[in-house]
Amino acid sequence: MTIHIYNTLTGKKERLEPLEPNHVKLYVCGITSYDFCHIGHARSALAFDMIVKYLRYRNYKVTYVRNFTDIDDKIINRAAEQNTSSFELADRFIHEFYTDMDRLGIDRPDMEPKATEHIQEMVQIISELIDKGMAYQAGNDVYYAVETFSEYGKLSRRNLEDMQAGARISVNEMKRNPMDFVLWKGSKPGEPKWDSPWGEGRPGWHIECSAMSRKYLGNTFDIHGGGKDLIFPHHENEIAQSEGANGCSFVKTWIHHGFVTIRDEKMSKSLNNFLTIRDLLEHYHPEILRFFVFSTHYRNPLDFSELAMQDATAGLERLYAAIAAVDALTTDGRSDSDSVITDKDRQQMLSIEERFQKAMDNDFNSAQAQSVLFDAAKSINRILQGLPPEPASDDLVFLHATRDLVKKLAAIMGLLEEDAQTFLDAQKQKMLSAIDMDEVTIDNLIEERRLARSTKNWARSDEIRDELLAHNIELKDGPEGTSWTVKRTS
């Protein structure tokens, strides 16, 4: 099987064929470090963490680079508001970023360069562009001349003439074209500044990724990633800078993940409708957030709601319950007992890894991969129901091997990493803390209701259901009995 990835540049899925055999070089745009991270940042970090984990599971060598923007107008303005330096502010929120990422269990990239540590590399590219006539100095600033790059707009599928016609008149009348973008900004009083051939100043936003990706991955590399909001202008401008300076193709495959929305509106700090990662983790286990993110394909919008998070909680608990049930089995079986695992179940379990790979090979379809894990849990539960008190040794070995495989595959999405029973116990305690009734009372009422139903005393059965519902407890009847959960709210 071969991995196929949707390439934003071509608008189609393409076979993964690294430039260097079996070695994938990946660059992802990281955060601008001026505030706490919201769950949109979590989605980006989780998506590429999953992609890297899967590529390595499929035996690719991966060089993963993700940058920090630690000099920017937002950082400078926020530092001024807080009466601190931009360097202190940026370092503080990089530290906070690591705190959030570590709580989410996200692996560190191989390299995490900071923009301020690569000023000379940026100056070098700007100088090359000026020498080629693709950039020009205007006062103390330097601009990229978009008309010199004939393919400008190829990633976002925008036409330069249409963009020019729709552009607002630039405040800076020294720009030759309203679409020209800044490469170097002349210094203003009180701002951080560095020396350059064009005077003291600081780099523009777009040039930093061109400089750092070239330094660590070369002129051309395999995959560049980020959110869809970066397609234009950031990634479009990166292409223009890099291909203009290097004279060759910049990136083979562009991966862009969808937005996180709240009630179908993009979540962002500018709209003030965002939830920070740490706020969310006050209420949910990190794996629940991971489960929620991966329940939707990375390219699709991900709409956040409490109901969606509670659905993710229930789904993750189902997987953990199957793992816990196998964990509880003794390893002592009877070698002379007959197997109760049917050929159909055995074949289905043996196909788990192949089906999981098929889903993930199709543009990292984590939602389909999750459904494979659910199929495995369902099969495990069906087999466990038919196990005799002294099961066959071969059946126990098979169940434990299947559990280990499910955990191995789930780990690609950062799931099922906890001790299963400990996780389930903690989730139950969290539910109990949200209601004003103890577990023994709940269990006694559920048992009384079971007896009432067995004698067809429907009135008493309904009374008990209503009594529990008044305490915010919902019952669910199933083939394995009655379970309960805290009532969901919108």
UniProtKB/TrEMBL annotation:
<keyword id="KW-0067">ATP-binding</keyword>
<feature type="short sequence motif" description="'KMSKS' region">
    <location>
        <begin position="266"/>
        <end position="270"/>
    </location>
</feature>
<protein>
    <recommendedName>
        <fullName>Cysteine--tRNA ligase</fullName>
        <ecNumber>6.1.1.16</ecNumber>
    </recommendedName>
</protein>
<dbReference type="InterPro" id="IPR015273">
    <property type="entry name" value="Cys-tRNA-synt_Ia_DALR"/>
</dbReference>
<dbReference type="Pfam" id="PF09190">
    <property type="entry name" value="DALR_2"/>
</dbReference>
<dbReference type="Pfam" id="PF01406">
    <property type="entry name" value="tRNA-synt_1e"/>
</dbReference>
<dbReference type="InterPro" id="IPR024909">
    <property type="entry name" value="Cys-tRNA/MSH_ligase"/>
</dbReference>
<feature type="domain" description="Cysteinyl-tRNA synthetase class Ia DALR">
    <location>
        <begin position="355"/>
        <end position="424"/>
    </location>
</feature>
<dbReference type="GO" id="GO:0006423">
    <property type="term" value="P:cysteinyl-tRNA aminoacylation"/>
</dbReference>
<dbReference type="InterPro" id="IPR015803">
    <property type="entry name" value="Cys-tRNA-ligase"/>
</dbReference>
<comment type="subunit">
    <text>Monomer.</text>
</comment>
<feature type="binding site">
    <location>
        <position position="209"/>
    </location>
    <ligand>
        <name>Zn(2+)</name>
    </ligand>
</feature>
<feature type="binding site">
    <location>
        <position position="238"/>
    </location>
    <ligand>
        <name>Zn(2+)</name>
    </ligand>
</feature>
<dbReference type="InterPro" id="IPR014729">
    <property type="entry name" value="Rossmann-like_a/b/a_fold"/>
</dbReference>
<dbReference type="GO" id="GO:0004817">
    <property type="term" value="F:cysteine-tRNA ligase activity"/>
</dbReference>
<keyword id="KW-0547">Nucleotide-binding</keyword>
<dbReference type="InterPro" id="IPR009080">
    <property type="entry name" value="tRNAsynth_Ia_anticodon-bd"/>
</dbReference>
<dbReference type="GO" id="GO:0005829">
    <property type="term" value="C:cytosol"/>
</dbReference>
<keyword id="KW-0030">Aminoacyl-tRNA synthetase</keyword>
<keyword id="KW-0648">Protein biosynthesis</keyword>
<comment type="similarity">
    <text>Belongs to the class-I aminoacyl-tRNA synthetase family.</text>
</comment>
<dbReference type="InterPro" id="IPR032678">
    <property type="entry name" value="tRNA-synt_1_cat_dom"/>
</dbReference>
<feature type="binding site">
    <location>
        <position position="29"/>
    </location>
    <ligand>
        <name>Zn(2+)</name>
    </ligand>
</feature>
<keyword id="KW-0436">Ligase</keyword>
<dbReference type="GO" id="GO:0008270">
    <property type="term" value="F:zinc ion binding"/>
</dbReference>
<feature type="binding site">
    <location>
        <position position="234"/>
    </location>
    <ligand>
        <name>Zn(2+)</name>
    </ligand>
</feature>
<keyword id="KW-0862">Zinc</keyword>
<keyword id="KW-0963">Cytoplasm</keyword>
<keyword id="KW-0479">Metal-binding</keyword>
<dbReference type="GO" id="GO:0005524">
    <property type="term" value="F:ATP binding"/>
</dbReference>
<feature type="short sequence motif" description="'HIGH' region">
    <location>
        <begin position="31"/>
        <end position="41"/>
    </location>
</feature>
<feature type="binding site">
    <location>
        <position position="269"/>
    </location>
    <ligand>
        <name>ATP</name>
    </ligand>
</feature>
